Amino acid sequence: MKQAIILIGGYNSFWPTYLRMARDLEDLSGLQAVGVPLVPWDWWSARRAGEATLLLHKVAQTVAWARRRFRADRFILVGHSAGGLIARLYLSDRPVWGRVYAGVEHVTAVVTLGSPHCSDRGADTGWFLSSMTNQLVPGTPYAEAVRYYAVAGRYLLGRQDGDYRQRRAFGSYRFFTGRGDLWGDGVVPVQSAVLEGAEAVVLEGVAHSRKYGFPWYGSSKAVIRRWWRQGGG
User: Fold this and answer.
1) Can you list the positions of beta strands (E) in 19-160?
2) Secondary structure, 3-state, 145-156
3) Helix (H, G, I), strand (E, B) or coil at 79
4) Omega of the bond prior to 95 within 30 degrees of 0, cis?
5) 55-60, long-range: CB < 8 A, 24+ apart
6) Are 93 and 174 contacting, i.e. CB atoms less than 8 angstroms apart?
7) Selection from 84, 86, 87, 83 nearest residue 75 by Cα
8) 36 Rama class: left (phi>0) / alpha (psi -120 to 50) / beta
9) pTM over 0.90
10) Contact 166, 116 (CB under 8 A)
11) 30 vs 98: CA distance, rounded Å
12) Third-level CATH fold of 3-151+188-230
């Protein structure tokens, strides 16, 4: 059995942003890694359509490519931000917007990094992709076959009367939970990034992305090692 890593980027991101992260994961894990070639247009289309068929299709294509190129038959999915929701949907052995992807048959682990699971809110999360994911594949339904790791960053306390970053975090946290005075990675509060049924990994001082602070989940081998050893590794 040969494994490879499939990296799914976050909302509105360009896949080359994760090239260095993929190389660092290769060095740390000894496995080959490839990123799903997503661009902002893919996310915009998903938001407009209210479903993520195009995103899931690209994940399936990347898995098929990695199967041929790396001769891998098992995969670890690493999803950053909204990419973690796509990873959860890809596992489904039931139709997701008309197609069965059945990633559970060849995925051994899912690692989500600052993903807005909002699993404590069910299918009423305030954001269409979180809500639909929790409706279609609530929690960790494949935990007997797939290891789930939900990584959260405890980087910034949201404050309505704080500085610019704290106020921005307050608004984002409130969007996902109804409360803004929480700790999180600057975008997703810790309680929304953890997932019922998954092993939670909370990283002190780690931000959501380079736009929101440093270090972020994929900024260096030192940071990646912290969650890879606890989660994917």
Assistant:
1) 32-35, 74-80, 107-113, 147-154, 156-157
2) CCEEEEEEEECE
3) strand
4) no
5) 55/86, 56/86, 56/89, 56/90, 56/96, 56/97, 56/99, 56/101, 59/6, 59/8, 59/86, 59/87, 59/90, 59/101, 59/103, 60/90, 60/101
6) no
7) 87
8) beta
9) yes
10) no
11) 36
12) Rossmann fold (3.40.50)
Alpha carbon distances (Å) from 163 to 157, 159, 222: 11, 8, 29
- Residue 15 backbone dihedrals phi, psi, to 5 degrees: -60, -30
CA 150, distance to chain mean position in Å, is 8
DSSP states of 167-178 as a string?
Answer: HHHHHHHHHHHS
Identify the helix (H) or strand (E) that includes residue 8.
strand 3-8
* Domain locations in the chain as residue ranges: 3-151+188-230
Residue with tokens 């890879």: 228
The single-letter code of the amino acid at 29 is: S
Q: Name, in order, each residue with C-beta under 8 angstroms of 223's C-beta and a sequence gap of 6 or more.
A: 203, 206, 215, 216, 217
Structure token pair of residue 137: 């594949």
Q: What is the pLDDT of residues 42-77, one digit of tens each?
A: 999 999 999 999 999 999 999 999 999 999 999 999
160-169: string of b/e by CB count within 10 Å (b at 16+)?
A: eeeeebbebb
Element (H, E) at 135: helix 128-136
- Please give the DSSP secondary-structure letter assigned to residue 84: H
Pairing state of beta strands 199-204 and 183-184?
unpaired
Task: Name which of 57, 81, 36, 90 is nearest 176 in CA terms.
Answer: 81
Phi, psi of 150 (to 5 degrees): -110, 110
**What's the pLDDT tens digit per position in 4-35?**
999 999 999 999 999 999 999 999 999 999 99
